[in-house]
Amino acid sequence: MINIRKLEAELWESADLLRAGSKLTSNQYCMPVLGLIFLRYAYSRFRMVEAEILKNRPSRGGRVMPVEASDFAAKSALFLPKEAQYDYLLNLPDDIASARLVNRDGQTMTSLGEVVNNAMALIEEQSDQLTGVLPKSYTDFSDELLSELLRIFNNSALDEVGGDIIGRIYEYFLNKFAKNIASDDGVFFTPKSLVKMIVNIIEPQSGILLDPACGSGGMFIQSGDFVNQSGMNANSAMTFYGQEKVEYNAQLCLMNMAVHGLTGVIKSGDEANSFYHDAHNLDGCCDYVMANPPFNVDKVKAESCESAKRLPFGMSSVNKNKEVGNGNYLWISYFYSYLNEKGRAGFVMASSATDSQGKDKDIRQKLVETGHVDVMISVGNNFFYTKSLPCSLWFFDKNKNEAIKDKVLFIDARNYYTVVDRTLNEWSEWQLKNLNAIVWLYRGETEKYTALLNEYRTILGNGNFEDILDQLKDELKDLQKRSKTEVEHAGRGDKKRIQAEYDEMIAGKNEEVTVAKEANWLYEKFGDGEYKNILGLCKVAYTTDVAKNGDKDGISIEEKGWSLTPGAYVGVAPAEDDGVDFEERMTEIHRELLSLQAESNELMETISKNMKEMGL
Question: Rounded to two decimals, what is the model's pTM?
Answer without folding.
Answer: 0.83
